[in-house]
Amino acid sequence: MARLSVYDTDATVQAGDRVIGTDVSGTVTKNYTVEKLGNFIHSTYGSEGYNSVAFNASTGILTMTEVDGGTDTVDLGIGTGDSPTFVGLTLSGNADLNGDLDVDGTSNLDVVDIDGAVDMASTLTLAGNADFNGDLDVDGTTNLDNTDIDGTFAVDGTTISLDATTSFNIDNSNTSNGITIGTATSGVPISIGHSTSETTINDNLTVGGDLTVNGDTTTVNTATLSVEDPLIILAKANNSSDTVDIGFYGLYDTSGSQDLYSGLFRDANDSGKWKLFKDLQAAPTTTVNTGGTGYAVGTLVANIEGEASKVTVADKDTCDEYPVVFHDESNSLHDDTGGFEYNPNKCHLHLIGTAPTLYFTDSDTNGDSYLTASSSAGSLAIAADYNNEANTTKIGFSLDGKEAGHWRGNSTQIGSLRLFPQKGNNDAQGVFFGTATSEPGFLDWTGKRMIAFDTSETLHFWADDSDGTPTGHLQIASGGGVSAGGDVDVTGSVKCTQNLRRTITTATESSNTHTCNLSLNDNFNIACNNAATTIALTVASENVGQSGTITIVNPGTVGSLSFVALPSYMLTPDGATVNFVTTANAISMISYYVHATDKVLVNYVGNFA
Q1: Structural contact between residues 2 and 79, judged by C-beta atoms closer than 8 angstroms
Q2: pLDDT given at position 353
Q3: Which ranges of 482-532 would DSSP assign to H, the alpha helix?
């Protein structure tokens, strides 16, 4: 049996229905049948006031009203076991339905609190708010314009469509359980977004499975990109040809007005060589335009190890700079003024610094050598074995596969310059000096031989000799004098601007025979003993034309002093016999001229004491 409770408000029931009235305690029941006007239902106990019931026959509406505004409850019971039907029911106050309510027509419910099940065979239109504390089972189509669901909302059907014209929001305040979509059954495909719509994930996104992006462009606007994969594959569709470049690049702007691009890529059009580039003004597409505006080779700062047989620097048509630079100007690892550069176009090796040095180490002797440019007047120094690991060191010169000479020295600073290992008479061998009157090109000038050493071991000094015939002038200037240990052959004249000083050689004495070897000197001195004295000359062909003086000094004691006649090759004027002075301490002089090896013309002048 359905019960209808009305509290302090009006209630309307259609005519023809049976009405059961009770008092406040619910123990006394009065039955009414609403068939005419004027029937009243009121409480028979207490003094809470009266309720009135009015029936409108024309409209068929039963109205139940609290008379004095008290808090009495008027219960309206309908039916005695059957299911009564309301042609029209308007509830102005609260209605408590303890049984089932079957509504065939339209129900306008402003505020409804339903504890049990509601079965609606027709359309339910809720103009106001609806609060469902229990389950809501909808078998047909439900159009919900504004629905607030506090409990569990389960929708089962073959096809469920949620559509909105302005906005559609799904939210959950439970931060642990969250919102799940498609987690009940494995393998269910889930599609989000139209083919041309924009889908935005406003917070973190975790993908438990694989992520496949089928679009043409993938843009990642993130400050930090972390990838677990240790090896990233690029150009995965490049498996049937080699037409695209492989690599990566970045964007930068050093001027504020021009975008520039720099990166590393494998050039498919250049035998797959990897290239580092910078300053390209157009973004690469599937290839990097190495001829594009601004394209330049990038700089790599790294420690490079490997077993490559060589390092190749590509050729260029023009290269005024040094593309291979072995120094770092960006930090304090190296002096900013130092460097080692190589220009393959010009084949130049360039060492830069206050004292740039090229070092060598002999692993056999540990001898260290170097070639350095000194900061003193731009000098160039060559040092061999500068740590004195092996004494007597050489710096050699080899030309056309043969040694031409070397410097030689030891730790006691005894050194020499040794040229031309083989002696010879070739006009091209010797020391030459240039004859140009203006600055000639490097290594592009002629000269004339000035010093040579022939096969007879004769050292030659020439002036202006280009063909073995000297035509110039040789000048020897020395503040301390010029000494010659051997013969000096002069084919021309000897001119002395001051004087020609001659030395004196003591004649060789043997058994009182005094011999003057004219090959040793021009002037001789004979110190006589107190005995018979013989004077002799040794004359060679080279002495022909030679002249000089022989002085004879007598001893202080002359008792036995005498002179043997001159040898036959010493000729006196008119063949006169020389009468030698035998006075003690007397000095005599013989002047001579070598006319031939067997004819020496002499003149004796005695007693200069």
Answers
A1: yes
A2: 76
A3: none
Token couple for 355: 């004292």
- pLDDT of 40 reads 36
The partner residues of 371 in beta bridges, in order of sequence, read 358, 382
Residues 537 and 600 in one domain: yes
314 and 285 share one domain: no
CATH of the domain at 512: 2.60.120
Q: Is residue 344, in this structure, part of any structural domain at all?
A: yes
Same domain for 256 and 324, yes or no, is no
Which tens digit of pLDDT belongs to each residue from 99-120?
A: 666 666 666 666 666 666 666 6
For 595, other C-beta atoms within 10 Å of its C-beta total 14
Structural contact between residues 492 and 462, judged by C-beta atoms closer than 8 angstroms = no
Is residue 218 assigned to a domain?
A: no
Q: Beta-strand (E) ranges in 207-304?
A: 246-252, 260-267, 273-280, 296-297
Sorted by sequence, the CB contacts under 8 Å of residue 39 that are 6+ apart come out as 32, 53, 55
For the chain, helix, strand, coil in percent to 5 are 0, 30, 70
Please state the domain count of the chain.
Answer: 4
Q: Write the burial class of residue 314 (CB in 10 Å: 0-12 exposed, 13-18 middle, 19+ buried).
A: exposed
CA–CA distance, 243 with 240 (Å, rounded to integer): 9
598 and 509, same domain (yes or no) = yes
Nearest CA among 269, 328, 274, 275 for reference residue 301: 328
Distance CA 498, CA 61 (A): 168
Q: Which helix (H) or strand (E) holds 317?
A: none
pLDDT at 471 over 60: yes
Q: Identify the helix (H) or strand (E) that includes residue 548.
A: strand 547-553
Strands 523-527 and 504-506: parallel
Tens digit of pLDDT for each residue in 324-344?
555 545 544 444 445 667 676
Which residues touch 607 (CB under 8 Å, ≥6 apart)? 581, 583, 586, 587, 588
558 & 593 share domain: yes
Pair (522, 573) in one structural domain: yes
Range of the domain at 519: 504-605
CA 51 distance to own-chain centroid: 100
Question: Per DSSP, what are the bridge partners of residue 339?
Answer: 352
Rg (CA), the chain: 68
Handedness of CA 574, 577, 582, 587 (dihedral sign): positive
